[in-house]
Amino acid sequence: MPTHYTGTVEEIIALNTFIKLTRATESLNARLAAKGTLGNLTITQFGVLEVLYHLGPMCQNEIGAKLLKSGGNITLVIDNLEKRSLVKRQASPEDRRRRTITLTETGRKLIQEVLPVHVQAITAEMSVLNPQEQSTLANLCLRLGKKD
Amino acid sequence: MPTHYTGTVEEIIALNTFIKLTRATESLNARLAAKGTLGNLTITQFGVLEVLYHLGPMCQNEIGAKLLKSGGNITLVIDNLEKRSLVKRQASPEDRRRRTITLTETGRKLIQEVLPVHVQAITAEMSVLNPQEQSTLANLCLRLGKKD
DNA sequence: CGATTATTATTCAATATCAAATTATTTGAT
DNA sequence: ATCAAATAATTTGATATTGAATAATAATCG
Prior knowledge:
Two copies of one chain form a homodimer.
Chain A: H1 9-35, H2 43-55, E1 58-59, H3 60-67, H4 71-83, E2 87-91, E3 99-103, H5 105-126, H6 131-145
Antiparallel strand pairs in A: 1-3, 2-3
The structure holds a DNA duplex.
C-alpha cells in the first residue's frame, strides 16, 4: 500500500520499513517542534547544549561526533550559540588546534529549564507505544544504527 | 547508559527510545548518502522525482504534503530540479494558482535508473534485521508516525 | 453580486548542512 | 630533529528548511 515499487519480497519489506522509519522520525520531530518545547532553540542547538550539560566541556570535534554533524556545521551552530552567550569558546592548553566549548551560566540555566519540559513532550508522544513496545523499538533501532 | 537524564522510568524509556530512533534514522541516511546511490540528487530531490514517478503529475502543494516539507522549500527544490531539466512546471487549467509539476523524459529516465540501485542499497542496510523484525519495526513506526 | 476568507506559489531572512579548500598545529616515522 | 601525514577549526559555495509576508486566484456567504 505505501510502496509502489516493484521488486523482490525482500526489497518491498526493506523499503516499506525504511519509509515508515523515516516518516515516524520526521513526523515525531515535526510534532515536537510544533509544541515549542525547545525554548527558542533549534534541534541541533538543543543537542549541543544537552551534550555539554550531561558530558561536560568538550571540543567542537567531539560535539560533531556525538551529534553526527560535520565540522563546518558545528562551527556555525557554536557561532550562533555564542552570539546568544549560551556557550563560550576557550583555548585548549594541551592542544592549540582545539577550542574547548563550555556552557555559560545562562546556557546551563536554559538547558536545565528546557530539558524536563522537552522530555515530557517526548514521553507524551512516545506513549502511543507501551514501555515494552518502546524497548523493542529501541533495540531494533540500536541494531540498525550500529556501525557508528 | 545512553541517557544521562534523571527522571521517571517512563521518561527514561521514552527518551532512550527516541534517541535510538533518531540515531538509527540519521546514521542509516548517512551511510546511504555515502554509498552515492542517489545519482547526484539530494534526498528531497530524489523524493520529489520518486513521488512524481509513482503517483504522476501533481501540484507543489501536494508534493509538499507527501514529503512533509514546507511550501517555500518545495518551490526551491523544484527550481533546482527544473534547472537540470528533470521536471517542468505547467499551468493548471482548472486552477490558475496551481503549477502542475511533471517529470521530463530526462527526469523519468534518471529516476528509473537510480531507484533500483537505491532500493538495493536500502535493502542491504536493512538486512541486519530479518524480515520479521523489519515488519515489527515498520508496525511500531507506523503507530508512532500516525496523526499525519 | 461583492466582500471576506482561503488557498497556491513565491520571496525573504535566518539557520542548517555538507563537501571541499585552507590554515594552524600536532604527531609520527625515518 | 625534520619532514610528511594527520587532525582541528574555519571559510566558502551550494542546497535545504522553516516561518512569515506577499501576490494572485478561487471559493464562500450574506
